[in-house]
TrEMBL record:
Pfam families: 2-Hacid_dh, 2-Hacid_dh_C. Residues 41-327 form the D-isomer specific 2-hydroxyacid dehydrogenase catalytic domain. This is NAD(P)-dependent oxidoreductase. Keywords: NAD, Oxidoreductase. It comes from Tatumella terrea.
Length: 331
């Protein structure tokens, strides 16, 4: 992704900038120089608890957050706050109605993790179709060493070249996944969300689900899409189908998915996100007895290159706001 040039002229900013949860973005492998050029007085907190937010932002004009939630109650106690920079594409971490009322500008990052998330999406698909974890477990258990022939074929591997992939979400990420899937010879169709079927190249979701071998979610979480994949829609899918989610956990009814997998009404699912993160120990998808379920801990976005790109975009967004021409504006 092309970066915007950063001007040294912004080095005069002294309004107070605070990054509340820097460790959520930098795992010790990033270069924050660009951000410091824009905000020389930047205060970096590796971690901040919800109880510490108001105190740490008390004198700041700029707040930078990666994973923390900024509710209306806290925002209303920060009269100096003028700008919130989100180190993410999602905007549900901020009460948007409150920031509009308070006159706070919110800018987020865009597209920084497209390649990373698309790569992880295909990795999850391949992990399910090629039974990677299952075969690795057989080898670790000594079953290959004890075999009477050169290979194990306990789990039939399914090729992707004849499969139909339904992608829910036709943004930059959905299109990138489509590009990679087509390289595997898959037939790609985009689903139209209920009430927003849109262009002619989309098929209504309820019409596409019975046709799809794999369904991959890449749409935002909104009041309209919350619980999108529920008991009824899982019932529309083939028993041999796979469900992939690298978008937002709230798109899926967790209990419904657990039931479908246990009862064999769905062949498998691979998720990088859950409805609550980190999930409680009693989360319905973490019971350990659900067959053909793979879960990774919200890591699809987190390649070093993607996170460095997000850091660069934070600096670009800050500089543009200081110049009076904010970019990537949410509110």
């Amino acid at each position: 992704m092309t970066s915007l040039p950063l001007s040294p002229d912004t080095a005069t900013f002294t309004g107070g900038a605070v990054f509340l949860d820097y460790a959520s973005l930098d795992f010790g492998d990033l270069d924050a120089a660009a951000l410091y050029r824009v905000f020389p007085d930047l205060t970096l907190h590796l971690h901040t608890t919800p109880a510490q937010i108001a105190e740490r932002l008390a004198g700041a004009e700029v707040a930078i957050v990666s994973d923390l939630h900024l509710p209306a109650e806290i925002l209303g106690r920060l009269p100096r706050l003028k700008l919130i920079l989100l180190a993410s594409t999602g905007t549900n971490a901020v009460d948007l109605a409150a920031v509009r009322r308070l006159g706070i500008t919110v800018c987020h990052c865009q597209g920084y993790g497209t390649h990373a998330v698309a790569q992880h999406t295909l990795a999850l698909i391949l992990a399910l179709t090629n039974h990677v974890a299952r075969y690795s477990a057989l080898v670790s258990a000594g079953q290959w060493s004890a075999a009477d022939r050169f290979c194990l074929t306990d789990y039939p591997i399914s090729g992707l070249n004849d499969k139909r992939l339904a992608i829910v979400g036709q943004g930059e990420l959905g299109r990138r996944v489509a590009y990679l899937a087509e390289a595997f010879g898959m037939q790609v169709s985009f689903a139209g969300l209920p009430g927003r079927e849109g262009p002619q190249d989309k098929i209504a979701l309820d019409e596409l689900l019975p046709l799809a071998d794999i369904v991959s979610l890449h749409c935002p979480l909104t009041p309209e899409t919350a619980g999108l994949i529920n008991t009824r829609r899982l019932g529309l899918m083939k028993r041999s189908a796979l469900l992939i989610n690298t978008a937002r956990g709230g798109l899926i009814d967790d209990t419904a998915l657990a039931g479908a997998l246990r009862e064999g009404r769905l062949a498998g699912a691979a998720l990088d996100v859950l409805s609550q993160e980190p999930p409680p120990h009693n989360h319905p998808l973490l019971t350990g007895d659900i067959p053909n379920l793979l879960i990774t801990p919200h890591v699809a976005w987190s390649t070093t290159g993607a996170r460095q790109c997000a850091l660069q975009q934070l600096a670009e967004n800050g500089q543009a706001w200081l110049a009076g021409q904010p970019i990537r504006v949410v509110s």
